[in-house]
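One record is kept unedited as follows:
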Amino acid sequence: MEETVEIDYEISDQVSDINTLEKYKEQFDKMLGIDISTTGEFLEDNLRDFIQYINSTSSPASTPSPAHQQAYALYVLAICSLGETPRSELTDEFYTTRYFPLLYSALSNYMPPFRKLLATQDSRIYEFVEEKASDIVGFSLAVYNLSANVIKSDTQKIFLKTFFIETSPYNIQDIHTYYYTQLQYIYYEYIKNKTKGLVPIEDLIELQQVSKISSYSRLSIYEQGIRNHRIKLMCHNSDTLKEIDRNYDRLRGRIISNKFVSLFKQSSGVSIHDDKTTLVYLNSMNLSALEEAYPLVCKLLRSIRVKSNIELFNDIEKLEIRDTIYHTTFNKLKPTLGSKVSNKLASHLAQSVTMDLVSGEYIDPRTMSRVTVNSRVFISQFQKFLLTVLESLETL
């Protein structure tokens, strides 16, 4: 069960005061003690305490929704993690080792309402973009072999590096509409960049008009031009895939074989031998058919399995998985091989595959957060996936 940080709404309305933000920065350095020259590791307990500190010392005059309150806490965390270094001098390594691990750890563990808000916005906008420019989006997915998840992750990361840190959420009346407009603009630039010069983009004109962000002063026009140029540059490369590559290297000493990858290779004919290349490939490629049929299996397939005392399934669930593998395999092989041989093969497969599947911990390489699944739904999906794998094998 997710741990939710309690929020105190009744403290202070001086949320935009520069001195208050400076105090947060002092407390951030004291509690987390992260320096850009270090590995960027931090203690989860310290992160939780810092978020509680923000929530207990800030609240606007009018009580916001939990998502709005958490948006401010994440905004403070983002500003503090940026430090005094000019944004133009921040490196990819900084974002990978410090900025995104902090923000995504906070979102995953302590900010369910705001995390849900961002996920909902992402899904709505992606569906909107598909509706307005389905041919172009389909072309982009096919030519670049992009996963919809990578597109959503890339655009969200661009948002967290640009628009999100430019305005305090407490100076925004309606964060749903405000963030939706900004994310929509990023989607437009992202898709346009991926298809530029290859297909007509007339279908995106309406999207561009809807996504246009208003400016009212000469200074804001200049700032918007600089920011929009940065966004266009970010759209050239996938932040998500670069982070997956780096995060694999960070976890290399703890990584153990992911059996889902082996099963997928058996059923699909993928012949990549390097594990890191395979991971990047699986996270970048469009697996829409697999995601639709077995979303939880696909979730674990795209994860990094590491040594850990924390396990994804309890003992009862492990037995259910083992029995599922045994009965599915036995029933599939029995008509061809007979009961005796099928029993031996199914027993061996059930024992070995179960051990490989259930031990260790699964990490999302995009966010470095722990992957969890509903065991009952997973077992049902895995049984169907296993049948697909068995049907693709000429010999076991």
